[in-house]
Amino acid sequence: MSVSRDSVWQALSTVEDPDLKKPLTDLGMIDNLVVCDGHVSFALKLTTTACPLKDFIKDSAINAVKALDGVVSVSAEISKDTITLQAKTPDRASVPGIRNVIAVSSGKGGVGKSTVSVNLACSLAKQGARVGILDADIYGPNVALMMGLQGQKLKSATEQNKIIPPQNHGVKVISMAFLVKDNQPVVWRGPMLDKVIRQFLVDTAWTYDDDGAGNFVPGGDLDYLIIDLPPGTGDAQLTIIQATPVVGAIIVTTPQDVALLDSRKGLAMFQSGNIPILGIVENMSLYVCPSCGHEDAIFGVDGGRNAAAELNVPFLGQVPITPSIRLNADAGTPIVMAEPDSKAAAVFKELSHQVVAQVCAMGIEGVAVAEELSTGDEAPTCGIPAAAPHTHDHGHDHAGHKEHAGCC
Length: 408
Ligand SMILES: Nc1ncnc2c1ncn2[C@@H]1O[C@H](COP(=O)(O)OP(=O)(O)OP(=O)(O)O)[C@@H](O)[C@H]1O
Ligand SMILES: [Mg+2]
Hints:
Elements: H1 5-12, E1 30-36, E2 39-44, H2 54-66, E3 73-78, E4 98-105, H3 113-126, E5 131-135, H4 143-146, E6 155-156, E7 163-164, E8 167-168, E9 171-175, H5 190-202, E10 208-210, E11 216-218, E12 222-228, H6 235-243, E13 246-253, H7 258-272, E14 277-288, E15 295-296, H8 303-311, E16 315-321, H9 323-330, H10 335-338, H11 343-373
Parallel strand pairs: 2-3, 4-12, 4-13, 5-9, 5-12, 13-14, 14-16
Antiparallel strand pairs: 1-2, 6-7, 8-9, 10-11, 14-15
Helix pairs in contact: 3-11, 5-6, 7-8
The structure holds adenosine-5'-triphosphate and magnesium ion.
């Protein structure tokens, strides 16, 4: 007797994502399931194509199916497409077309917020996510320069009359740099600030893509919008984060002892806005001499790591002082694109994996809440994309599998 599609689905539902602790089937990770005369094939959509556990997940899924009577062969491939879960922003209205907004902040200026923002964004885009950066540093915007978009101007082109964000390295960018001349100071006061940011957020055509022929066509929701905040933890920063549906924040710090002080202020600011901290990044850690390999802790070492431990938030990594980070940024190509095999690029890549995993886990909590609230046959509204193929090879709906209703 050959195996049925239902029993294959059932077997796959016993395999959990080790990080997210939910069945692959519930997470929408099983794609293109085909069952034919005992031959089974499917694709796995992971949260990131660079998932370190991808072989483990694939082997577990294959073994679960192989254990079924009537299975002759099983083939599974890792899909180039990834899944993005949408975290909950309980107190702030979400923006249509943007799934997860992540803020990058620091207690003081010049510690590497923009560097972290552009490298995080490019890492996420390289993994197949749809990514944008909102440069909220309207007084000193430099994301455009770091992304190779200096001198670009904004266009208004879609039917909805939205602004088309300039794009490079697979990332869409909106910044005050596209509106003012290089040497022109911006003098805007507090109350105008949240209006500008809100306008950047909602009037930008994040969901549109250039089709290569100069036309802008619908391309799908943005998975991640990275907000590069202006330095500091005062009113201006609070105004901005209150104007945006931030799901989590990253605090960038240098390793000096004062790092703890800065991070504590950052933590308090986000707590007051009810925003979870995704973690602390320690930038400008050890300097390794490119000629002789000698290591020098110019700004000390481990301040960010210690701050994370003391404040009980995740530590996201140590970025070494690397001259090519600055040189590549000045040339408009973040180091993860220019030197993907460098040590610094590896730190940013790992940082992006941690961010994805945390945001996904926050989306999972959203599912749990929605499932608790749902009654009877009512479908939960949880923000998870509709899971997997729900139609049998015979064309009818998968029995016993709950459809998600789509994004909140
Ligand atoms: N790890 C690093 N190694 C070498 N140079 C770095 C490193 N991190 C950042 N830089 C350089 O230091 C300068 C400041 O970094 P960046 O602009 O990212 O800081 P910032 O916190 O965004 O500053 P601001 O507060 O002015 O917005 C830039 O020239 C950047 O290229
Ligand atoms: Mg900056």
